[in-house]
Amino acid sequence: MGCAGSTPAKGDVILENTKKLQKPKPWKHTQQMTRAQLKQMRDEFWDTAPHYGGQKEIWDALRAAAEADLDLAQAIVDSAGIIIPNADMTLCYDERGAKYELPKYVLSEPTNLIRDS
């Protein structure tokens, strides 16, 4: 993008494409897992995610949104200036265009979750 009369280049992030958050679609993990295993996977993702690029503040906001109910998550995303082209938050951008990809396991529970023993 450039001047006011230009058109977006392929791959440009458009703020108007920000969607209202929705509950993620049900998904199934390749293996059954316990809630403790899911928590461990989530903790490992959030501990390492900032090392893949982007701003730590945005990663923190994304984590808070992922762990909140939909209304609070929407408020967090909006206030942090996060652009959500996918309503399920699996793909996000910050205002500078940095890309943030979230795996489904940090956004919802799998359908084959089993009880901790």
Briefly say what this structure is.
This protein is α+β, with helices and mostly antiparallel strands and 117 residues long. It is built from 3 helices and 4 strands; from the N terminus they run βαααβββ.
Write down the domain tally.
1
Strand content: 5-15%
Question: How is the largest sheet built, in terms of strand order?
Answer: 1-4
Terminal-residue CA separation: 55 Å
Characteristics:
single chain; 117 residues; alpha+beta; Bacteriocin As-48, Chain A; two-stranded parallel sheet; two-stranded antiparallel ribbon
How does this model look, in words?
Pfam families: UBD (PF16455). Residues 18-116 form the DC-UbP/UBTD2 N-terminal domain. Residues 1-30 are annotated as: Disordered. With 117 residues, the chain is an alpha+beta fold. It has one domain: Ub domain-containing protein, DC-UbP/UBTD2, N-terminal domain (Bacteriocin As-48, Chain A, Up-down Bundle), CATH 1.20.225.20. The protein has 3 helices and 4 strands, in the order βαααβββ. The strands form 2 sheets. Strands 1-4 form a two-stranded parallel sheet. Strand 2 and strand 3 (99-101) form a beta hairpin. Helix 2 packs antiparallel against helix 3 (70-80). The model is unreliable at 13-17 (pLDDT under 50).
